[in-house]
Amino acid sequence: MIAQGLPIYLALEPVDMRIGSERLGALVRERMRAEPRSRALFACVSKRGHSMKVLTWDGTGTIVVPKKLDAGRFELPRATGPGEQHIVVSDAIFEVIHKGVAYTPRATRRRTH
Length: 113
Description:
Strand order of the largest sheet: 4-3-2-1-5
Distance between the termini: 45 Å
Radius of gyration: 15 Å
Order of helices and strands: EHEEEEH
Helix content: 10-25%
Number of strands: 5
Strand content: 15-25%
Oligomer: single chain
């Protein structure tokens, strides 16, 4: 799935997963200030965090790859600056996010009876 060496843009704000490739492309232009028909991957996560869509262009057309986790959520990195709507991540970080791996330790909840 992950094409090595391509820039990977990750939206930090949730996106409605009902939208298709044209509207995702518009979001890339508006929020990420990038051209959706460039050689890059553009990833967006749903409000609940269990669905992701990745938009890319292969030179002949737009490709949208959806993914829905059976359990857990996609954990996104925090914004590095105020008002930031997206970040560019490395292949390794995106692979961890795309697999749904929790990279921040979760606090254990104390059970009370």
